[in-house]
Amino acid sequence: MWTFLHKFASPKHFYRIAGKMIPWLAALTVLFMVAGLYFGLFVAPPDYQQGESYRIMFIHVPSAWMSLFVYVFMAVAAAIHLIWNIKLADVMASSSAVLGASFTFLALATGSLWGKPMWGAWWVWDARLTSELILLFLYLGYIALVSAIDDKRAAGRAGGVLILVGVVNIPIIHYSVEWWNTLHQGPTVTKFDKPSIHLSMLLPLLLMAAAFQFYFFTLVLMRARTEVLERERRSAWVEELLG
User: Would you give the DSSP letter of residue 44?
Assistant: First the structure.
């Protein structure tokens, strides 16, 4: 196990291993996405209060979950890079930022579309919505910061510090519906007793969540491989790879 992780941290071995993983992850993405959309759009019954409009949940909720997951993933990668100076950890963090920002924007956009018929407004300064918007600004701030610094080492350190400072926003987003009175509904899946959502709706939701996760890992490995080639372009193994 440790030998595999050590090899995976090497840019040369990471490029090779990631190349083998990407097709499998892409296949799983398509499989879970098709299954999730089928069960969500054609099998799950209409909601007794929201009717057909609730089906946007199958995009909105996985996007919101992924917006938090990707940031935590980046924070762990940033900590590894800052503590042990593993360059590949910085590559994974920088390769994840655009994807995390995209998931966050999608969560906000679909939430707005969902909120209009439910709340009568496209946007309210709700605790959950506001903290999610701050998360989008954190993603964009990280992207702008590392892009503005030419030195990759300095950019990685500065971006890593920003990520770790901003990670305090993650529990705020998660627990905002419990700490404050908000329009946003409380947790329905991650409850200690049992999810307050019928299995016919829970199944496609979990399938879509898995599809989004496989999609993220597919794209982040593709982006990371490109970034590795860019950073290691003067290395002997890259010159040999490119012929």
Answer: S
